[in-house]
Fold:
Amino acid sequence: MTKELGVGIIGCGNISTTYFKLAPLFRGIRIIACADIDPAAAEARAAEFDVTAQSIEALLANPELDIIVNLTIPEAHFPVSKAILEAGKHVYSEKPLVLSLEQGEELRATAKAKGLLVGSAPDTFLGGAHQLARAYVDQGKIGRITSGTCHVMSPGMEMWHPNPDFFFLPGGGPVLDLGPYYIANLINLIGPVKRVAALSSMANQTRTITSEPRKGEVIPVKTPTNIHALLEFQNGATITLSASWDVWAHRHGNMELYGTDGSLFVPDPNFFGGTVEASGRGKEIQPLEAWDHPFAVNNWEHPLGPIANYRTAGLADMADAILAGRDARCSLDRALHAVDVMVSILKSGEEGRFVTLTTTCTQPAALGIEEARALLR
Ligand SMILES: NC(=O)c1ccc[n+]([C@@H]2O[C@H](COP(=O)([O-])OP(=O)(O)OC[C@H]3O[C@@H](n4cnc5c(N)ncnc54)[C@H](O)[C@@H]3O)[C@@H](O)[C@H]2O)c1
Structure:
């Protein structure tokens, strides 16, 4: 691929630095401008990463931009993505893509009418660990997946994020915030979901921020913070998903998948790397032999040690898909199906009944070693 697509960013908060730092690893994309509802935030990032700060209107009208990345807070995702499409640019959004199916269908219709693509994070399922798990499943090593468990549980977000309010408002909560990583990876490994059921609750009506600079401030909780869900997949597999910010400690694995011929132990889908383990019939659990996948290589300092971090891989894959006229792995169809799963889980928690999904999608194409390498500079 020789052509490079111009990329702009709307939303210059916490996660934007990751995009600015990692996008240069990838071919086919170049971040050239950024904007924020708070012009000072855009100016700060522009100075830090040597791009142009613009007003939102000027960024939307910038003829050098082909794709605009939406890194605003969840409740702004829909209006900002809609405005990007109306300005004639492709959209790549942080998760969750939107907060309702209606919003997603409106984006789909607008994108179709304008001949544009919409893509969405998470792209962590493109990581070396999750693609190794995918290859193992595709090779039939654990047989047909019939069931499994996913656990994403912690005490919350108010101890690290400087502005944690949105996590505890509608559009936040552990299912919409962290569920996308798990559901995207389940779609990667198993396929689409048929119906869901859930119980939901919240331990506290308020939370006290312990991170700086707002330490001690009390913020409201307006969405469930503890959800236990059941997912029935179209292939018949049944998965338990526990997502909670009301848990101080636990001993559950992130993701365990049980097949007719063995079990697969998948590392945290919020990250690209990690150790994948498996066992066959009557066999002990063993780590899978590591493979030479470029998105498994540690390249990032995390407070707990070095990790593989290739966020923006999904954006680079979408840019390649635009140029090649192929399906993007982090596509609107898959992101909207994940939204359907998540809002249906929350609806089931409110209404106490199974909810059958109205959307579906295909599994994304696997991203093997060569395909991943081709995305890198
Ligand atoms: N922080 C993380 O580690 C992380 C990781 C993965 C994904 N995400 C996702 O990325 C998104 C942003 O998260 P964040 O942590 O960077 O949030 P943040 O609050 O730090 O930053 C959001 C930025 O968007 C701007 N903004 C809000 N509404 C806007 C609008 N209508 N138009 C233009 N700008 C607007 C804000 O001024 C702010 O600068 C969220 O959807 C979140 O789920 C965050």
